[in-house]
Amino acid sequence: MDVHQALRTRRSIRAFKPDVVDDGLLRQVLDGAREAPSWSNTQPYLVALATGARLAAVRAEMLAAIDSGAPAPEHGFPADYPPPLKERRQATGYGLYGALGIDKRDLEGRLAHFRRNYAFFDAPAVMFLYVHEALGAWAVLDCGAFLQSILLQATELGLGTCAQATAGAFPAVVARHFAVPERYRLMCGVSLGYAADEPVNRYRPAHASVDELVIAGR
Ligand SMILES: Cc1cc2nc3c(=O)[nH]c(=O)nc-3n(C[C@H](O)[C@H](O)[C@H](O)COP(=O)(O)O)c2cc1C
Q: What is the 3-state secondary structure (H, E, C) of 51-101?
């Protein structure tokens, strides 16, 4: 698989088979991702890899947390979606609910799907990504490059993935299970595993065209 193929093949996976992913394969994903570029090569990110019993405990605590309170991410979730971001977000959300067979007026159904985020869609592995607070936005940018490297390397290795901001919604839960060094802040997570043969995984949201992405000259 070449890079272009990996870019085209990768789509967010929101239903996983229960099959365990070999530790060696998960390490291979990170071995590819560690080649990502970063500010002055500081590599201002760390990964907490949860599988097996530890992931089961994190999952149970995350579900309990969302059932009893509002998310408290270290990097606040956006509240403002001006055009064209709002339209893209809405179209993607409606497309996803359509693929799930959930009517857009079915609030309960939508909430039930939203809750599935906190079970990591039953993925057998989750990588929690942390960034060093000292580098501010630059660390977040570097983490983005690292994140995409994880997603593409996983794609090449036959693994499905879903980047999840929701995995960063309750940092205290994750910190109970990992010795997170000082000044590292939870950014997001990546659920990984083998994609289940479910309609939700066949949903391919629109990605803007090159013309839409390029700013016109004056
Ligand atoms: C930083 C980041 C956070 C995301 N958080 C979530 C999430 O919490 N739940 C979810 O289902 N998808 C999440 N996604 C996946 C996006 O919704 C998805 O990438 C987008 O709709 C485009 O679809 P595609 O990945 O299939 O191309 C996230 C993606 C990124 C990059």
A: EHHHHHHHHHHHHHHHHHCCCCCCCCCCCCCCCCHHHHHHHHHHHHHHHHC
